[in-house]
Specification:
Distance between the termini: 80 Å
Radius of gyration: 40 Å
Order of helices and strands: HHEHEEEE
Shape: extended
Number of helices: 3
Structural class: alpha+beta
Strand content: 15-25%
Helix content: 25-40%
Number of strands: 5
Strand order of the largest sheet: 1-5-4
Oligomer: single chain
Length: 177
């Protein structure tokens, strides 16, 4: 159990304790005010970061207590509300134009090759020996090349190094009998 602090018998000591506790309350109130200010600053920072994050997006969702909720359930109230809206639209005879979606032009495939006007030096690499031959089937057939272009800076001109890297089938895995 907690022991109660002894309360002095003389009036001046009691008044000193009261003054000390009043100072502690004032300090705590100042600390609370400072923390509330800090909390408000943090909330502003969070809201600003959320605005930045969602600024350029077409769909946004923020929980807002002032926003009315749509009840799309099968409750009788929802059915009555839908019927009431349909009647109101029919009475007002409002014609709403149909939305037509614009079709975007198909994008051209990206061409990441270097400009064609630059001179090209072609280097054909040879496949390693362990890839050229299969222990079980013998020599492998070359099925093509991968091309890697590198821009080489040689003063005072630029040229493109055009490497042809052989494509060979993957090593065959012997089947378990």
């Amino acid at each position: 159990m907690h022991d109660k602090p002894p309360i002095p018998e003389d009036l001046s000591a009691c008044q000193a304790i009261i003054v000390e506790q009043a100072k502690a309350v004032v300090e705590q109130n100042a600390e609370i005010a400072k923390l509330k200010q800090l909390l408000a600053e943090h909330e502003l920072t969070i809201n600003e970061l959320l605005q930045r994050a969602y600024r350029h997006r077409s769909e946004r969702y923020h929980e807002d207590p002032n926003q009315l909720k749509l009840d799309l359930g099968d409750t009788p109230e929802a059915c009555d509300a839908a019927e009431g809206l349909a009647e109101a639209v029919a009475e007002a005879q409002i014609v709403i134009a149909e939305h037509k979606r614009r079709r975007h032009k198909p994008r051209k495939p990206r061409d990441e090759s270097l400009p064609a006007h630059l001179p090209r030096v072609e280097v054909t690499l040879d496949a390693p020996e362990d890839v050229k031959h299969c222990a079980e089937h013998g020599a492998r057939k070359l099925i093509g090349y991968d091309v890697q272009e590198t821009l080489v800076f040689k003063r005072p001109k630029l040229e493109v190094l055009h490497k042809k890297i052989p494509n060979t089938p993957a090593k065959t895995i012997p089947s378990a009998a």
